[in-house]
Design a protein that fits this description.
Layout (H helix, E strand, L loop, with lengths): L5 E6 L4 E5 L4 E2 L2 H4 E2 L6 E6 L8 E7 L2 E9 L4 H14 L6 E7 L2 E9 L4 E3 L6 E8 L4 E2 L4 E5 L2 E3 L18 E3 L4 E6 L8 E6 L3 E8 L5 E3 L3 E2 L4 E5 L6 E6 L2 E4 L16 E11 L4 E7 L2 E2 L3
Parallel strand pairs: 2-3
Antiparallel strand pairs: 1-2, 1-8, 3-7, 4-7, 5-6, 7-11, 8-9, 9-11, 10-11, 12-26, 13-25, 14-15, 16-24, 17-21, 17-25, 18-19, 18-20, 18-24, 21-22, 22-23
Length: about 300
């Protein structure tokens, strides 16, 4: 059976429309869509008197614009009008949304806003539409976020089980994984931020995460008690440090050590070590991250 690419838009009210060959909103993605697999960028450079050429300073990847040209695959005019109204309702430019790409088992997603509203035309009594999505963050993401646990608890008790009177090992419910170093592999196309969660199971003073290769670190000068969770977001545009204690979340950005860096994941291997000024055996650390891709 031949497979086709499809795009599904889901708005912030969890309303969705699928655009594809088999959909009532017919779009042959391979020829009727653009912008989903290509990007534009701006290269920054400087020059000085007597210099041949320019000196490279950096590059900016521009926001992505995805356009669709399709038709409502119904001949009955009343059905066409109902589907057109549905399209206008769901593709509301005031709502946030996500565009999901699928080809077979391959899936990606990207944040998208409808630019304006769909435009319609009626050649040969067919309802044709054009839609433009603006993706301010131009990178495609995988459907699920990657997770790396450091010094977490591993379950050791399974069913069925046998508890022996003279064997203390038969009563072990779990053990603590004591590794303090983890290799976080970024298989994406660009560097990316991450979310670091420090969880205390006892008193922990000033937890931090260190990049073993670059010696950069992010440290929070704060004393944690059992049950506390400190979450550090290093992603551009979303940088934050919060404390969750007894169900209440507090902004503790001011407790970040002045020499800290909002660590990024470079392409490939990233070796991290977690630690604390004291109480490191009562500390658990989790790293969450999304790999970013230039196209699909």
């Amino acid at each position: 059976m031949k497979q086709y690419e499809s795009l599904t838009y889901v708005n912030s009210r969890n309303e969705s429309i699928t655009f594809g060959v088999g959909s009532q909103f017919h779009v042959n993605v391979i020829k009727d869509a653009s912008g989903h697999s290509n990007l534009s960028d701006t290269i920054y450079s400087t020059s000085s008197m007597g210099q041949h050429g320019d000196t490279f300073q950096g590059v900016r990847i521009e926001p992505r614009e995805i356009t669709l040209n399709g038709k409502i695959k119904e001949n009955d005019r009343s059905v066409q009008l109902n589907l057109r109204r549905r399209l206008l309702k769901i593709l509301n430019p005031e709502l946030e949304g996500t565009l999901h790409y699928q080809y077979g088992t391959f899936r990606r997603k990207i944040g998208a806003k409808v630019d304006g509203s769909p435009t319609f035309s009626h050649p040969d009594l067919t309802e044709v539409f054009d839609i433009t999505f603006k993706c301010l963050n131009p990178f495609w993401l995988e459907e699920t976020t990657h997770r790396e646990d450091i010094a977490s608890w591993i379950a050791d008790w399974y069913f069925p089980t046998v508890i022996l009177r003279d064997d203390p090992n038969s009563m072990i419910f779990g053990h603590r994984q004591m590794d303090v170093i983890v290799d976080v592999y970024n298989d994406g196309h660009v560097a990316t931020g991450m979310t670091v969660q420090f969880k205390a199971i006892g008193e922990v003073v000033n937890p931090y995460l260190l990049n073993v290769n670059t010696r950069e670190f992010i440290k929070v000068n704060y004393t944690m008690i059992a049950g506390d969770v400190i979450t550090v977001n290093t992603d551009y545009g979303s940088k934050s440090i919060t404390l969750l204690r007894s169900g209440a979340e507090t902004n503790i950005y001011r407790y970040m050590d002045v020499d800290s860096t909002f660590l990024q994941l470079d392409i490939g291997d990233n070796i991290f070590r977690y630690d604390a000024d004291s109480g490191v055996t009562s500390l658990e650390c989790t790293i969450l991250y999304d790999q970013k891709y230039l196209g699909v």
